[in-house]
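Appendix B, record 7
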Amino acid sequence: MQSLKGKIALVAGGTRGAGRDISVKLGEAGAKVYVTGRTTRNQQSPMGRSETIEETAEMVTEAGGIGIPVKVDHTVESEVKGLFERIKEETGRLDILVNDIWGGDPLTEWGRPFGEHDLGKGMQMQKQAVGLHIMTAHYAIPLLRESRGGLVIKITDGIDYEPRGSFYYSLAKISAIHIAQSLAADLKDYDVASIAVTPGFLRSEAMLELFGVTEENWKEAAEIDPHFIASESPYYIGEAVRCLAEDPEILDKTGSIFSTWELSEVYGYKDIDGTQPHWGNYYKNIIKA
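Structure tokens (predicted):
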């Protein structure tokens, strides 16, 4: 259970949702996990959510790892640079980088074609979901190269380059895939793998609140949106990332795009309720049928 003991991980955007459960799962495997985000017990981010990086870090420690909360706005270069200077000073290395920073939900205007979508919101989305991923990777690369055998995981939405219903949203999510693939080419000689991972219909804290349900009675939300029945909890992608981080043959997967449902078939993990949601099959057989 302590297969990642001694490993140093950074989960950028680990305050809530997928980032939180990824952090906890890496901690459960014994890793020391730096958890970054903008919401602390003393200051709330513009997202207006109650979850904090301190809570996530405490959950990491309770799971068996070492959780370290660091308040970072990843759009501010000085804060990003300072984060990696701190990691280098305290540990001298970085083995795992998971970038789950997003914050684009309030910026996406679904149903509005390009040209009608608010330009300011669209450009801000690229800054948050593309620019800061580049900036964070830029400062992480020197430490990852030294680690030899490191891993970069970019959390995205979708496993291909097809449009995702909104120009700006598509551009952001597809860019995350391309960043992962480009880093794979650059880092291969250093034995550092880089991949993109997508969840399915994620029932995050915000999504549960939107439908007025909890993780215990989440299926009731299918009365509002029938597709919610095929959703998955953040625990599922947490398991996926943990399995990837533990995989001794991870370099064979570098440059690839994976989904939680595909990886569950490879590694055999299940969601928190004991099921194996398969959004790919649901989308193909129900939504697209």
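Remarks on this record: The domain at 8-204+233-276 is CATH 3.40.50.720 (Rossmann fold). Residues 177 and 196 are 6 Å apart (CA to CA).
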